[in-house]
Design goal:
Number of strands: 5
Radius of gyration: 26 Å
Order of helices and strands: HHHHHEEEHEHHEHH
Strand order of the largest sheet: 3-2-1-4-5
Helix content: 25-40%
Strand content: 5-15%
Mean pLDDT: 81
Low-confidence stretches: 90-99, 269-277, 281-289
Length: about 290
């Protein structure tokens, strides 16, 4: 079979296409290089975020960009999407019914739990995390070497004064939570307790999910050289979690935004190199003496 070579003019005339389209060289967008640099920088700083959260942070920083474009650059640059959390089953009773206290409004159900980590010298630190299940806001993270039932009362009493008394508090059956002093005090202020069944952490799913995010996004990547450093860095992350971090479960918005802040103006702290001419504003992380 022989191939007949046709002229460009004849082919364009047959197709009804202007000849200039055959000579036009495709050009990328003028801001592609800068957008890619900012995307990679955000992905490096927030290493456990997927492209959807990165897209939200880019828009917060001033970029006009949709998720599809961010995904295209994300995959082109070979960035890794964090693995999804496995689905959990519901709590079923013997009669086949499903029971769960579900939050209906802010201050309806709070949940709290402990998380442990270690400083560089091997000494243990404990964190008492308190969240509002409806708003997904982290209300407090108390960090200390030791935490007991007295500390539980102290943290809750401060929050009750600042935010009001919730309808319920949900927790596991740890000794700090079921201590008589804690139960008597909670009952005296008019709060109902919602203890989960022993050995059933999935019943306290909100705070368990928060604990996983805290460990995945912060604790697994930080070395704390002392208790004070841990307290400062963890509190900085808590503020970022509430005011900046996009939450997929609430439409990729932060649970408690305060004011407009650039994506790099909160946790984690900024880079040593100058900011790019695009929209990202960097700040220097405070150092401890």
């Amino acid at each position: 079979m022989t191939m007949t070579k046709l002229s460009e003019r004849r082919v364009c005339r047959a197709l009804g296409q202007h000849r200039s389209t055959q000579r036009q060289v495709p050009r990328g967008r003028d801001d592609e290089e800068q957008l890619t640099a900012d995307l990679i920088e955000l992905a490096r700083r927030y290493g456990r975020y997927g492209y959807r959260k990165i897209a939200v942070l880019l828009r917060d920083a001033g970029w006009v960009v949709n998720d599809k474009r961010v995904e295209r650059i994300w995959r082109r640059e070979g960035l890794k999407v964090p693995a999804k959390q496995p689905k959990r089953g519901r709590l079923w009773l013997n009669d086949g019914s499903c029971v769960r206290l579900r939050p209906e409004r802010a201050n309806h159900v709070w949940s709290y739990d402990f998380v442990e980590d270690r400083t560089h010298d091997g000494r243990k630190i404990r964190m008492l995390n308190v969240i509002d299940e409806f708003t997904h806001e982290c209300l407090s993270i108390r960090v200390a070497r030791r935490l007991n039932s007295t500390d539980v009362i102290d943290v809750l009493s401060d929050l009750f004064v600042l935010r009001g008394v919730p309808g319920h508090v949900r927790s596991d059956n740890g000794p700090e939570f079921i201590a008589k002093a804690v139960q008597d005090w909670i009952t005296a202020v008019g709060v109902k307790t919602a203890y989960i069944a022993p050995g059933s952490p999935w019943e306290n799913g909100f705070v368990e999910s928060f604990n996983a995010r805290l460990r995945d996004e912060l604790l697994n990547g930080e070395i704390f050289y002392g208790l004070q450093e841990a307290q400062i860095v963890i509190e900085s992350w808590r503020r970022h979690y509430n005011t900046i971090r996009p939450h997929g479960s609430i439409g990729y918005k932060p649970p408690a935004p305060e004011v407009f802040v650039s994506a790099f103006a909160a946790w984690p702290a900024a880079l040593t190199r100058p900011a790019s001419p695009a929209k990202l504003t960097l700040v220097q992380r405070p150092t401890l003496n």
